[in-house]
Amino acid sequence: MPEVLPCPTADPSQAARNLDRHGFCVLTDALPSGIRAEMRARITEQAIGERKLDAGTDDGAVYLGGAGRAERANRRVWALMNKGEIFQQPLMQADVLQLVSQVLGPDFLLSAIQANFVSPHDDPLPFHSDQGYVTRPWPPYSLTASVIWMLDDFTEKNGATTVVPGTHLPQEDDDPNAMMVRARLIRKGGIPICGPAGSALIFDGRIMHGTGINTTDATRLAVLTYFCRPFLRQQENFALSVAPHVLDTLPDSIKALLGFQVWKTLGSVEGVCAEGAIVERPQAPTGAVNTTGEPLYVGAT
Ligand SMILES: O=C(O)CCC(=O)C(=O)O
Questions:
Q1: Nearest C-alpha to atom 8 of ligand 1 is from which residue?
Q2: Which UniProt keywords are listed (predicted)?
């Protein structure tokens, strides 16, 4: 008998049981509507400004191996911490943080915070696991967890995130039968995870997921918070400890050792940078901008 998949719930205890059993859950009423409206307005303004500045990214070039058409790719607004105080809010929602800690343990780090627009008829983001860069065999626990904050209703028609149930379970990687089952599941496609605006979709970082196709005439917007276990970082925080004048003198080989080289998307700045790129502090304006691309000093006193 096919397994019954979890429904959105406003009850954090039920959400916790769903997450435990299925590797994902939807908690409704996770963000008050005022916060949601403010986030939406700020992201929309920022996205228009970033287009003017030719900043921000379209997934097509990055995730679709260059095959995606930029005009039909999901649009991202990265590094939201710099782009408005309102983006601190998702990091303060206790019920959702509790669900993240159910996946990652009591201590975890924010690995990225960004917005994703799925516009009508965008190419879907292909199925992937958010810890896909980890060498297999994986440990029997998740190394990452994600929360997708629905700023719009997520529906079957507007590009709701799709997940492939069961793909978070430990895989017998060397077992050809298990690999075939997994491949079949992925080919069959995922199921759209629907929920009303203000819901949070929380999932185990191993689960295969992607974006759906938006066949409506309105854009679907979400904020994505991506978390990882606290040991997924270096002991010394070189981004802060190495003085800028010293950094300028270092050869790329040493910058790479210090963590200034992008590896499988990790270590990127303001979007997913090319594999192997040596990253630098971006030139201004990198923070909040208005619709004409001029800096907005959000958070300044
Ligand atoms: O926006 C979405 O629905 C999913 C995005 C996603 O899967 C990702 O960024 O890894």
A1: 210
A2: Dioxygenase, Oxidoreductase
Domain ranges of the chain: 12-235
Q: Is the CB of 211 under 6 A from ligand 1?
A: yes
C-alpha–C-alpha distance, residues 152 and 158, integer Å: 9
Closest CA to 295 of 13, 37, 17, 49: 49
Residue 161: CB within 6 Å of ligand 1? yes
Residue whose CB lies within 8 A of the most ligand 1 atoms, among 77, 122, 211, 214, for a mutation test:
211
Per-residue DSSP letter, 275: T
Q: What is the pLDDT of residues 235-250, one digit of tens each?
A: 999 999 999 999 999 9
Which CA distances in Å does 140 have to 53, 109, 163, 170, 204?
Answer: 44, 20, 20, 6, 12
Fold of 12-235: Jelly Rolls (2.60.120)
